[in-house]
Structure formats: C-alpha cells, structure tokens
Amino acid sequence: MNLRSNFPVPIKKRVRLCRHTTFGIGGPAQFWAEPGDVSELADLAAWCKKNRTRLRVIGAGSNILVADRGVSGVVARLGAPGFTVVRRAGERVIVGAGAPLARLVAFCSRQGLSGVEFLHGIPGTVGGAVAGNAGTKDAAIGDLVEFVIVMDYNGRVSKRSAADIGFSYRCSGLEDVIILQVCLKLVGRDPGAIRRRIAEYAAARRAGQGAAWRSAGCCFKNPRGTSAGRLIDACGLKGRRCGSAVVSGVHANFILNKGGARASDVLMLMRCIRETVKKRFGILLEPEIKIWR
Ligand code: EPU
C-alpha cells in the first residue's frame, strides 16, 4: 500500500524531530502532518486508527526526548491558525492548543487578565502545558482550567470540565486524547501590576535556571516534599557529562545539550542520575520529560 498517497492530509516523510524539540535532539518522524483545522485532524486520526498507524501530537517539543533513530507513525503539529486562536470571553480566555504559552501570557497581560504570569518563560504550547499540567512550585495551569475541548483517537470531539479531568502534580489524565482548545478562568487586574509579576518570574527563572544551552526543562519530577534538583546537586552531579549531554551547573535537574548531544547520551546520564540519587537518598526519581521511541 502506498501510505503517502492515501493520507487524508498533506504529509512529509522523514522530518527530523531535532528541529522541532527544544533539546535539539532526535531522529526523524516517519510521517509529519500539519492539519489545517479540526476536521482535517479528525480525518487524520480516523485514518491512522484504520491503518493501525500511531498518531502523536507535538507541541513546542519542550518536554520530550526523541530517540536517535526517530519514531514510526505520524507526528502532527497543531500550528495552523485554527488551532492557535486566543480570545477573551469576560474574565475567561479561550485558547487553541497550538498557541505558544508566550502568546497567551502576552495576550492576558494586554487584556489586564491575571493568572497566567507564572507561565512566562516556559517554552511550550498551551496544549502541551495542559497535557503535562505544567507550572512552577506554587502554581500549575490546571488550577486555571475551566474546561477543555478534546478529540479522541477516533476523531470524536468532546468537552471535559476541570472536575472530570482531575489534574494533579505534572499530570492531567488527558494522555489518551488530543487537546484542541482550553478555557481558562482568570481575574481582572491592572496591566502594570501584571507586567511587574511577569518581570519577577522572568528574573527568578534566569537566576535559578540559566538559559544558555538547549534543554527540555526539568528532567525529573520532584519527589513529594523535596526538589529533584536539590537531590541531584547534593550528589555532586552538576557538570557530570555523557558525550555532549551535561548536568547543568546552574540547576541540577536540567540536562543541557552542549552541542551535538544524542538521545542515548541523555538517557545514559539520566540513568546515572537515578542510580546515584537512589543509592544516596533511597529515592527513585521519575522522569518528567516524555521519551519518544
Ligand atoms: N536547588 C539546589 N540545587 C539545584 C537546584 C535547586 O539546591 O541545582 C534547590 C534550590 O536552591 C531550592 C530548591 O532546590 O531551594 C528548589 O529549587 P527551584 O526553586 O529551582 O525549584 P524546583 O523544585 O527545582 C520546580 C519545577 C520547575 C519550576 C520551578 C520554579 C519541577 C520538576 N520543577 O523546580 O519546573 O520552573 O519549580 O517554580 O516541578 C519544569 O517542569 O521543566 C521546570 C523547570
């Protein structure tokens, strides 16, 4: 069967995912698609289901490590205008899953809507952030969600309220669906005060995490009651390297790509970190980044 000519939407073959991840690491996607709207995405999902081809959706690629040999199946990006609209509805904002968080934060700041300032500087999309309930120590995007419009892998669209979703630390329970649109409940506030909060978050992030090299943010989830970064640091692992993958000297929960790192380097370094922390503290760190293989 000629898979390519049978696809319901235009596709590209063997697209290098290192170009679509903040790590700058990863082999090719067998097929790459950018559906133009929800109906094209539904057709693609239905086609993949029928042809037993795996469909994955990629956001900004800021929380994934793609294997060096790449992934089979279809990787779809929701970057078309229909997936990235941001609009205000009273004190709520309805935003497409493909919209970058930066655009959401800037929009809310201009509109005098407060609540999303802590998302400033996280290099993800709204859909990716909601899927992983992204956030900081004190806030997560799930706290703001009123409802989410999702599509299942048969192409059926439905609405899930926050109560049905059940967000928890770095987890949404929405792994089995594609997030299309999100409604966030915010509060009106003076735009100047919002800008000041954003600047505070930006300064704290610069000081605490640094930004000189490519990474996928924090590699491991925080164990209950402590910080993975603190534990890794206490093991003396800052600067530990496997190939060109290096534990950040600024924040020990960040692995940096110091140029040409391979996924296998990162995986080996993650294994070394987990073993060392387990030995020293008896705690097995759980990866926060998603590994695509
Ligand atoms: N710490 C160290 N050494 C380090 C890193 C941290 O001793 O190398 C100590 C800090 O001094 C601080 C404590 O550990 O006392 C906590 O550090 P930090 O404030 O950096 O927070 P974190 O728990 O390491 C979490 C999130 C980050 C988020 C920050 C800021 C997780 C896994 N990480 O980090 O999220 O930016 O809080 O609120 O939940 C991400 O998810 O990718 C991410 C970066």
Percent of residues in helical segments? Answer: 25-40%
Q: What share of residues are in beta strands? A: 15-25%
Overall average pLDDT: 96
Shape: globular
Tally of structural domains = 3
- Mind telling me which CATH architecture of the largest domain this is? 2-Layer Sandwich
CATH topology value of the largest domain: Uridine Diphospho-n-acetylenolpyruvylglucosamine Reductase, domain 3
> Which ligands appear in the coordinates?
uridine-diphosphate-2(N-acetylglucosaminyl) butyric acid
Which structural class best describes the helix and strand composition?
alpha+beta
Overall number of strands: 16
Distance between the termini: 24 Å
Radius of gyration from the CA trace? 19 Å
Taking the sheet with the most strands, its summary is: 5 strands, antiparallel
Give me the side-by-side strand order of the main sheet.
Answer: 6-7-11-9-10
Low-confidence stretches: none
Order of helices and strands: HEEHEEEEEHEHEEHEEHHEEEHE
Number of helices: 8
Oligomeric category:
single chain
User: Given this structure, which CATH class of the largest domain is correct?
Assistant: Alpha Beta
